[in-house]
Amino acid sequence: MQAQGPATKVHPPDGYYVRGVDRVDGRLLVVDSTANALRQSSDWGATWSGNKGLPSGVGITQVSKLVRFGNYIYLLATGSPSAGVWRAPPATGDTPYVWSPQLLALTRGATAIMTDLEVSTWGANDYLYSGDYGDPVGGPSMWRISLTDANGAGTTWDRIYGPDRHQRHIHAVAPDPYNRGQVWATLGDGGTRTVLRSLDYGATWSVVIADYHWQGVQISFDPRYVYIALDQPGFTYYVIDRATLQPHIASPNSHAELAIPPPAPPGARYYAIANFGAVDPTTGAYYCVANDTASSGSWMGMFFDRRVGMPVQVLDRGGPGINMNGEIFIAHGTVYSGTWQHLAVVS
Q1: Which range of residues forms the domain containing residue 173?
Q2: What is the pLDDT of residue 2?
Q3: What integer best gives the mean pLDDT of the chain?
Q4: Does residue 189 have a cis peptide bond before it, meaning omega lies within 30 degrees of 0?
Q5: Residue 35 falls inside a structural domain
Q6: Is the pLDDT of residue 180 over 70?
Q7: What are the percentages of helix, strand and coil residues in the chain, rounded to 5?
Q8: How would you list the strands of the sheet with 300-305, edge to edge?
């Protein structure tokens, strides 16, 4: 297996920030902060639409994530008028989206991060899930809406967790595509719960991990493991074996230990935390970015691990402040994070 060339900007020279993938129609969904525009590409970045528009009162910097669920594109936004979810029917070419009023308002005081909006792909009893981030009043919550309700009025959201006054943030919520009805969630920073699992589509939850040592953010899956991108220094990511529900450090080294390929300024180090990362279930390769600028270090980079148990390697050397800092999306043989894209590792 080998990596294919260097990472490139999603839209040279400035770069568009990838906020989601419409996996039904095969479209990239991005924000163009230079032009304050929301855009889409139906040919994986070869050409781009004009401005698709935003919900009333939502600015381009507030767009956290976009997902396709049923007949609509859903948008998760943070900040004014409030953190929450809107939707619009897909629209081809330069045709603007026609946005709904706000369908779900997150808890007062909450913000939102990309991994707090995700859809299930079970093919029956599918749901769209959302969660709170940012120290909401009374603690965070999670919600879901069924496919039937989503294709209807879109307003029937059930609170399926919380408010939990003992926790601070929902870091991610993710349905397990290999086990119908199973949903996983990561929590932080602090609190008494770290990883939760539901066996009934999110109706009830149990604690899988309570130890803060395993705090993570992005969740991904292959047939054997649940992968958690770590939100702590020390190692890069870990896996949970579904058979035992035990966490295991997934690689013998940390990305933060790797030398930055030259040229690099003296003393430069990769940021210690890579809390955005995901596995490609078709190859077993795991991808992540050194993205947490609140951790020690000074340099972003993109990394991969060929499979669980092997060492993490540099995929792209990166640089300081270059926006390799978004949720990892894997689509069309490409790995996306922030304003960057890289061909996936192949055999």
Answers
A1: 17-259
A2: 45
A3: 95
A4: yes
A5: yes
A6: yes
A7: 5, 40, 55
A8: 276-279, 286-289, 300-305, 313-319
Tokens 């086990």, located at residue: 179
Q: Which residue, 113, 117, 61, 115, is CA-closest to 85?
A: 117
Structure tokens at 280: 């490609």
Count structural domains, the chain.
1
Question: What is the side-by-side strand order in the sheet with 72-77?
Answer: 63-69, 72-77, 84-88, 104-105
CA–CA distance, 211 with 223 (Å, rounded to integer):
25
Strand duo 37-41 + 225-230: pairing:
unpaired
| pTM for this model (two decimals) | 0.96
Give dist(CA 129, CA 109) in Å, integer: 19
pLDDT of residue 100: 97
Q: Of the ranges 79-83, 180-184, 185-189, 192-196, which one carries the lowest mean pLDDT score?
A: 79-83
Residue found by looking up tokens 């013998």 in the block: 252
Nearest of 302, 305, 223 to residue 270 by alpha carbon: 302
Helix (H) or strand (E) run with residue 149 in it: helix 147-150
Is 30 among the domain residues? yes
9's tokens? 């900007």
DSSP SS3 for 20: strand
Q: What is the CATH number of the domain that holds 32?
A: 2.130.10.10
User: What gap in Å lies between CA 106 and CA 40, rounded to an integer?
Assistant: 26
Q: How confident is the model at residue 332 (pLDDT cuts 50, 70, 90)?
A: very high
Tens of pLDDT, residues 262-314? 888 899 999 999 999 999 999 999 999 999 998 999 999 999 999 999 999 99
Write phi, then psi, for 61 (nearest 5 degrees).
-75, -10
Query: For the segment 216-249, what is each residue's pLDDT rounded down to a tens digit?
Result: 999 999 999 999 999 999 999 999 999 999 999 9
